[in-house]
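Ticket #4471: structure output looks truncated?

Reporter: J.K.
Steps to reproduce: submitted the chain below (52 residues) through the standard prediction queue, then opened the result file.
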Amino acid sequence: MGKLSTIREIWEFLRHRKKWWLAPIVIIAILLGSLIILTEGSALAPFIYVLF
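Returned output as attached by the reporter:
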């Protein structure tokens, strides 16, 4: 529940402060983080880490 509340808090910040230019940065960070978390136990992990 902590991760979802963090995402919700970032979303509320973007809406309240009208910082829409941060939205692409946040979305890419969330996508890359989820890619690393989802592939860390698979056979693809060594190939994903080469990209970074």
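Triage note (M.O.): checked the attachment and the full token line is present. The CA atoms of residues 31 and 43 lie 19 Å apart.
Status: closed, working as intended.
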